[in-house]
Specification:
The complex is a heterodimer. By secondary structure, chain A is an all-alpha fold. Chain A is built from eleven helices and no strands. By secondary structure, chain B is mainly α. The chains are: A mainly alpha, B mainly alpha.
Chain lengths: 265, 265
């Protein structure tokens, strides 16, 4: 518990310095918001098409889909908050910049992956995502109460942890290969499968995306829980997958770090 | 001319430097195609989508396949290099050499496109042949018009992004701005969805503005949506916009270079 408080405090310090830095370069901060709004526009086009077609996808009405895409937007914002640290990792490994951080008295993985937080990317996604979730929730007449809200937030948190763990994995390959640009492109493209609810895809595709490479767990489970459409096993898997993949990313990080050779003289 | 041939060859060499990464990047373009074709198949299978969107099922599928590919083909990236040349003083070396900076960038850009073209072109041929065998009205004349429009689209996108890159002469924080522009232009060029499905106003804007001529126009030639009159008008617009951005680029370059202060050691 003491350790969690310690890391939360450090996270607060990282957030404070990132915000101070963002406000120092205001134009960069504003243009960061516009970049994310550009990406958001693409996600909104998918919702616009579903509303225009006016078709249900399985049990999901367009209002449910609005909620699902809202969840996707919120979690995209959370991922974008720290994803710059992931993309900086290959460069740090190549140039031996990990040397400076390796001697600090805290978890190197935490330090490297959370040291810079980009609020310009988080804010538009969070704002638009929350509006879409609330609107979709209301229009689809989903239950409001302690249990639905608590369960929804629980699976949202699980989705955030799973995103961190799952999308860190391809960047860890930078300890073995020089350029991971292509792998990063592929993992980012995989993230886009959440543009649409998993129910639109075929049965086998859905199974692979839920149990082998669980990208569908991230943004579909909070909504499915609200609708009462998660089986007991799916409820368990939604909570277990983030822990499993976090343990995997932790183990791979430690293993990869053994490959790192210092660049200092 | 010999100098530009060397620049062209250097562009090819640089593009092939990280081959695996390059191939994986190309592979990542498949994912949006899978997402979109799945979505369109579902919508056309479960509603009267052709009446809602104005595209037949075959037309929209071909659009989804080709728009992503064409967007990949015309995409740039040199605007960041122009920014770095201007900001870090790298422009000096071009100013003292007997080469024109715009031509240098153009041949470099073309060289970098060669490996991409070698992968994309067979894919386009396979898709159009398959579409022809499925009964789509693809003729030799239409295929020739499509390839000509592709060449013009590549040139047009180069001239647009050359002008955007030159903004670095006047703006200090342009990196994220380039990102925003790139995403927004991808959307309004029809690189994600055909914009005319969103109504008459969107259709008129796509016809009048230059951006639709970098993706939507070539794709709508080959999928049979445009008649020959519309194709002829489109070519006139494409050439007109290329000339406009060439003049604008020359003007920006002349004004910018007066603004530029060289840095040297």
């Amino acid at each position: 518990m003491k350790k969690i408080v310690y890391y939360l405090k450090i996270m607060g310090v990282f957030a404070k310095y990132s915000l101070m830095s963002a406000l120092e370069y205001r134009i960069n901060f504003i243009t960061g918001i516009t970049v994310e709004m550009g990406w958001m526009l693409i996600k909104l086009l998918y919702v616009a098409i579903i509303y225009k077609a006016g078709t249900n996808i399985g049990i999901l009405t367009p209002d449910h889909i609005l909620l699902f895409v809202g969840i996707y937007l919120v979690l995209t914002g959370v991922y974008m908050l720290y994803s710059g640290n992931f993309s900086a990792l290959p460069g740090m490994v190549q140039h031996g910049e990990l040397d400076l951080y390796i001697v600090k008295p805290l978890s190197l993985q935490f330090l490297i992956t959370m040291r810079r937080l980009d609020f310009a990317y988080l804010l538009p996604d969070l704002a638009a995502g929350i509006i879409m979730i609330v609107t979709g929730w209301r229009l689809a007449e989903l239950p409001v109460g302690f249990l639905p809200i608590a369960g929804f937030l629980f699976y949202l948190l699980c989705g955030a942890l799973l995103t961190y763990s799952l999308f860190l994995l391809p960047y860890l390959l930078s300890f073995w290969t020089v350029s991971v640009g292509g792998i990063a492109d592929i993992s980012n493209a995989l993230w886009d499968f959440n543009n649409m609810p998993s129910l639109i895809y075929g049965k086998w595709f859905r199974r692979i995306g839920t149990y082998i490479l669980p990208i569908f767990v991230i943004t579909n489970f909070p909504g499915l829980f609200l609708m009462g459409e998660l089986s007991p096993f799916a409820c368990f898997w939604g909570a277990a997958a983030p822990l499993l993949f976090f343990a995997l990313s932790r183990a791979l990080w430690k293993f990869a770090l053994k490959r790192y050779s210092s660049a200092s003289s | 001319m010999n100098a530009y041939r060397c620049v062209f060859l250097m562009g090819i060499e640089q593009a092939l430097e990280y081959r695996v990464s390059f191939l994986l990047s190309m592979l990542s373009a498949l994912f949006p195609i899978i997402i979109q074709t799945t979505m369109w198949n579902y919508l056309y299978g479960h509603s009267d989508a052709s009446a809602v969107f104005g595209y037949e099922h075959g037309e929209i599928l071909m659009y989804s396949l080709l728009a992503v590919i064409v967007s990949q083909l015309v995409s740039t990236g040199f605007e960041w290099e122009i920014n770095s040349d201007i900001k870090l003083g790298g422009l000096n070396k071009y100013l003292v050499r007997p080469v024109g900076y715009n031509r240098y960038r153009f041949f470099w850009f073309l060289g970098q496109k060669v490996p991409r073209i070698m992968i994309i072109l067979p894919a386009i041929v396979i898709i159009t042949t398959a579409a022809f065998l499925q009964g789509m009205p693809i003729t030799v004349g239409r295929a020739a018009a499509f390839f000509l429009s592709l060449v013009l689209a590549i040139i047009l996108n180069f001239t647009i992004f050359f002008c955007i890159g030159l903004l670095a002469f006047w703006l200090t924080d342009v990196e994220k701005l380039f990102g925003t522009i790139s995403i927004v232009l991808t959307v309004i060029s029809g690189g994600v969805f055909p914009l005319d499905i969103f109504g008459k106003t969107a259709e008129i804007l796509t016809t009048l503005l230059p951006f639709g001529y970098t993706a939507q126009f070539p794709v709508n030639i080959i999928n049979g949506r445009f008649g020959w009159e519309r194709i002829g008008m489109g070519f006139a617009f494409q050439i007109g916009w290329i000339l406009f951005f060439l003049c604008l680029g020359n003007h920006l370059w002349k004004s910018g270079i007066r603004h530029y202060s060289a840095v040297s050691g």
